[in-house]
Amino acid sequence: MTAHDHGRRGGSPLDPGLDPARSALVTIDLMDRIVALPLAPLNGPAVLAASLGLAGTFRAAGATVVAVRTQRPGVAEQPPGSDLAAGVVQDGDLVVVKHTIGGFLDTGLHELLRERGVDTLVLAGIATNLGVESTARAAADLDYRLVFAADAMAALTAAEHEAAVTLDFPRFGTVVSAAQIGFAAP
């Protein structure tokens, strides 16, 4: 079963390249305390660097950049390191705060994206099989076209990352390296 089987638009949004007016980079949980976790197959600083590179590419093209971060509900103070890592957000970017694993439930993310005419998402962040995958599943249900930057995400174990990237994500969209993500010529 593929995304096409669920009525999604066929073909990769990368062919001939992303449309900056209709595309958004969505980074998940690039917070200091999460980037510092022992991750695999890449460490947190490597995921952060790859995600920042993608964000620069999106900003240069005039495309939307969204940083999604988690906030624990029902606590007076968030744990140390709960801020987004340096450089994740710049002027003009959107920040969405989530209280669940995924980035869509009760966050307004879908409405923000639709207001901007976005129908294609590139996903990156931590953890591949948790926050990224939960966000991707909701995005697929909302009929977004999906691209996964496999080398701009990591999980708590390499096996969890590989299972998401090789078994699950191809059913929802296109899995590529960050270097393969680009925009169509104007």
Concise structural overview:
A six-stranded parallel beta sheet has the order 3-2-1-4-5-6. The protein contains five helices and six strands. 31% of the residues lie in helices and 20% in strands.
Describe the secondary-structure layout.
Elements lengths: L22 E6 L3 H4 L8 H18 L2 E7 L23 E5 L10 H7 L4 E7 L1 H14 L3 E10 L3 H15 L1 E3 L10
Parallel strand pairs: 1-2, 1-4, 2-3, 4-5, 5-6
Helix pairs in contact: 4-5
Describe the structure.
With 186 residues, this protein is α/β, with parallel strands linked by helices. Helix content is 31%, strand content 20%. The protein contains 5 helices and 6 strands; from the N terminus they run βααββαβαβαβ. It has a 6-stranded parallel sheet with strand order 3-2-1-4-5-6. The longest helix is centred in the N-terminal third of the chain and has 18 residues. The N terminus is likely disordered.
Estimate what percentage of residues fall within beta strands: 15-25%
- Radius of gyration equals 15 Å
Distance between the termini: 34 Å
Estimate the mean pLDDT confidence.
94
Give the topology string: H per helix, E per strand: EHHEEHEHEHE
> What kind of sheet is the major sheet?
6 strands, parallel
Outline: globular
List low-pLDDT spans.
1-7
